[in-house]
Amino acid sequence: MENGNSIVAQLQARFGTDTFKPQSTKDDILTLWMPHDKIKDVLAFLKHDIPQPFPLLYDLTATDERTRKHENGHVPYAFTIIYHLLSFERNSFIRLKVGFRDEFPTVQSISSLWANANWYEREVYDMFGIRFSGHPHLYRILMPRTWVGHPLRKEHPARATEMGPFALYDDKVDLEQAALQFKPEEWGLQRQSEDSDFMFLNIGPQHPGTHGVLRIVLQLDGEDIVDAIPDIGFHHRGQEKMAERQSWHTYLPYTDRVDYLGGVMNNLAYLMAVEKLAGIKVPERVKVIRVMLCELFRIASHLVWYGTFAQDVGQLSPVFYMFTDREKIFDIVEAITGGRMHPNWFRIGGVAQDLPKGWETLVQNFINYFPKRLKEYDNMVMKNSLFKARTKGIGIFTLDEAIEWGVTGPNLRACGFEWDFRKKQPYSGYEMFDFDVPTATNGDCYDRAVVRVAEMRQSLRIIEQCLKNMPEGPYKADHPLTTPPIKKNTMHDIETLITHFLGVSWGPVMPFGEAMSCIEATKGANGYYVTSDGNTSPYRLRIRTPSFPHMQMLPYITKGYTVADLLSILGAMDYVLADIDR
Amino acid sequence: MEEAAPNYFLIIGGVLFVMLNVAAALIWVERRLLALFQDRYGPNRAGPLGLLIVAADSIKLFFKQDWIPPFADKPVFILAPAIVVVTVLMSFVVIPFAPGVIVADLNIGLLFFLAMSSMGAYSIILGGWASNNKYSLLGAMRGAAQMISYEVFMGLSLMGVVLLSGSFSLVEIVEAQSGLWFFIPQIVGFVIFFIAGIAETHRLPFDIPEAESELVAGFHSEYSGMKFGMFFIGEYMGITLISCMIVTLYFGGWLGPDFLPPVVWFILKTAFFLMIFILLRASMPRPRYDQLMEFGWKILLPITLVNLLVTAGVVLWVKE
């Protein structure tokens, strides 16, 4: 925190000593409340002027504070806007909060400060009804345009039974259809230039190239893309709203379905935050088991990306080979967890069961088998000259642009920046492992592929180390909040029995506080920012996903390319619609 | 061909029958082979080895609702799929399957083939235009551009063969190969014709007018039922035609050792090239449309011209 003190000192020197109020949190991230008339100045100062600046807007979200339990309500506000910034040089986050007392506040927009603030602010508007003054396109982003209400406000119903029966009248059909009509003028797009009429082409929501329900409206001059407007939200399930109704324990299966290719990796991101709240230190064996499964899922996810990317540029066969290999990973995952894509296997304070007998053989077989296949894929895909022609020099962005747009993960490393949260801010025992962080230099579609392919090899190295050095010990932490609790003493003393009973029936009661996690997920930095008001379910849970800012960057990197290149760019981006929309 | 006259209708009927069945059988062959290359089973449920998938597919195509989108240009929309089948079938008129087994030995057979395959471009353009759909239109535009550029050196690449044999008649071209198959002296011409042939039939890697991952189904996005079936059959007959032409022009047509009848040699050779087409589909990514054009105009066209020049020079030199 000596680092943090210097930031506070610098901020106070610039903006006055009474401007900032620090708050203590469970995750040791410097948290400061700032007044709402200085948002832009403070953030601009942190981005540009402070020594060792915070160039990445990691997340921007809000909380409805109105129904917090009174005894914990040291926040006298109705709504809070929360900014998370990341400094690479300091290797630390900073959290800035602004409180508002109005029911429908208006906030200074920072979309002119960070390119990726645009979508985040739209999301906050959509979910909370908070307006941003100076925002260029403050429309709904996840909910349909015709939606009434703002879902993450506490007064908005969370269950279907509270909403009343759904009926689709003819008028409503017309209304919904009209709302889906694309109006170029809304986005400041011209219908024609001096010498040609533009064509507006709807890619999606049902299209073989978008890998999910994504709609992109292209402004085309011939086949050249003049501009592109992604329309997301078709996969929105209200993950953040659902968390407010689930217990801390029963929310776990929902996390599996955020980045549905990442499997248990999502559990980990959530649990890292929850365990910080609960103050649980997990045993070594748990850490290594978790790392092993996460890396297996990283390979599985990259294999899906690899195959579908090749298919996007017209290569039909690799996807079959790669899905076959993914099945081999799922065989291991199935043997260990019983599930495949969504095993829901990590638990608060541990994992669901111990590793089964014979898991070593399965993992060893895969380690022996997989490198040969990777080499084969290199020859088939990466060294293919047509593949190179389709991906080299396409969709380039520089490192500065990547940071400006909030790009993380392999896409960031393809710009030549060695930033991996597993190395920089090790979690779950990654500091014990020996692995490299692959990077590439050009930041084009091909380099993004190079990084991912190299990452699979590194993941394999990590899995091998897990196999060789799996520590002995319990698979659950000995802590009252471990869920399901350890049953050892329940039949011997009444206190343990009661704790056990309540932990299983109500679910664990997390102590008051807030914490954020940040893990290197398959697609980039994934984080859960959880707020507890000392209850059995989260008061507010925010999921920061990597695909959201990546997709936001699409218009910027597709301009001037052709429709065919768009598919290369989408393929190389490696997004999952559930990860964008949540 | 006076002695062939009595068999005239038999031959036409035979060629039609065989070709339509080959196209149908290719449904099965392609799907099984692709599956083989991709570590899958492919259709193996209906009938022995899944052969009845052909029947199932045809029944499905025939009995699907014959849907014409209300926004389409109806007459053109109907005409387009017919063109592709008609032009390809017409091209088979000049193919000599065996001595005497040919519908019409035109003395301009080769030119007739080129003319007919160029006409095939109309089906793509008209189909894409009449669908009144943006994806179809993009596909049609790409198709037109691709066809036009590939026609040019497809024709030129064949001129080497014409120089060597001194004739446009396909029967005479085959007979001229009795000493040496033309793929040896004309290896460059063969490779270029093969590439142009893939582009002509718009198969992967040159399936740019369709480009599934980009344009949904390209020029035939709006087609369904048997109208789609016509495009489908047209494509299969197209690759059969190109395979037949490769065999006729470069691999000695029906010529082969005597232990097999000529027509069997022809079929075997053609089948080999059909499988190459399918293997290509399984293995290659798709270049971008402008890359394909660049490749055509900047690389293939000059090579073709040089090939033609060298061949002409050699022929002249040998004659003197």
TrEMBL record, chain A:
Pfam families: Complex1_30kDa, Complex1_49kDa. One of its GO terms (molecular function) is NADH dehydrogenase (ubiquinone) activity. Its EC number is 1.6.5.11. It catalyses: a quinone + NADH + 5 H(+)(in) = a quinol + NAD(+) + 4 H(+)(out). GO terms for cellular component: NADH dehydrogenase complex; plasma membrane. Residues 312-582 form the NADH-quinone oxidoreductase subunit D domain. It is found in: Cell inner membrane. Keywords: Cell membrane, Membrane, Multifunctional enzyme, NAD, Oxidoreductase, Quinone, Translocase, Transport, Ubiquinone. It is a peripheral membrane protein. Its main location: membrane. Residues 33-161 form the NADH:ubiquinone oxidoreductase 30kDa subunit domain. It is an enzyme of class 1 (oxidoreductase). Gene3D superfamilies: Cytochrome-c3 Hydrogenase, chain B, NADH:ubiquinone oxidoreductase, 30kDa subunit. GO terms for biological process: respiratory electron transport chain. SUPFAM superfamilies: HydB/Nqo4-like, Nqo5-like. In the C-terminal section; belongs to the complex I 49 kDa subunit family. NDH-1 shuttles electrons from NADH, via FMN and iron-sulfur (Fe-S) centers, to quinones in the respiratory chain. The immediate electron acceptor for the enzyme in this species is believed to be ubiquinone. Couples the redox reaction to proton translocation (for every two electrons transferred, four hydrogen ions are translocated across the cytoplasmic membrane), and thus conserves the redox energy in a proton gradient. This is NADH-quinone oxidoreductase subunit C/D. The lineage of its organism: Bacteria, Pseudomonadati, Bacteroidota, Cytophagia, Cytophagales.
TrEMBL record, chain B:
It catalyses: a quinone + NADH + 5 H(+)(in) = a quinol + NAD(+) + 4 H(+)(out). It is a multi-pass membrane protein. One of its GO terms (molecular function) is quinone binding. Its main location: membrane. It comes from the Bacteria. Pfam families: NADHdh. It is found in: Cell membrane; Membrane. The chain crosses the membrane at residues 7-29, 45-63, 75-98, 110-131, 152-174, 180-199, 228-251, 263-283, 295-318. It is an enzyme of class 7 (translocase). Keywords: Cell membrane, Membrane, NAD, Oxidoreductase, Quinone, Translocase, Transmembrane, Transmembrane helix, Ubiquinone. GO terms for cellular component: plasma membrane. One of its GO terms (biological process) is aerobic respiration. Its EC number is 7.1.1.-. The keyword Disulfide bond does not apply. NDH-1 shuttles electrons from NADH, via FMN and iron-sulfur (Fe-S) centers, to quinones in the respiratory chain. The immediate electron acceptor for the enzyme in this species is believed to be ubiquinone. Couples the redox reaction to proton translocation (for every two electrons transferred, four hydrogen ions are translocated across the cytoplasmic membrane), and thus conserves the redox energy in a proton gradient. This subunit may bind ubiquinone. PANTHER family: NADH DEHYDROGENASE SUBUNIT 1, NADH-UBIQUINONE OXIDOREDUCTASE CHAIN 1. Belongs to the complex I subunit 1 family. NDH-1 is composed of 14 different subunits. Subunits NuoA, H, J, K, L, M, N constitute the membrane sector of the complex. This is NADH-quinone oxidoreductase subunit H. It comes from Pontibacter oryzae. The lineage of its organism: Bacteria, Pseudomonadati, Bacteroidota, Cytophagia, Cytophagales. The gene is nuoH.
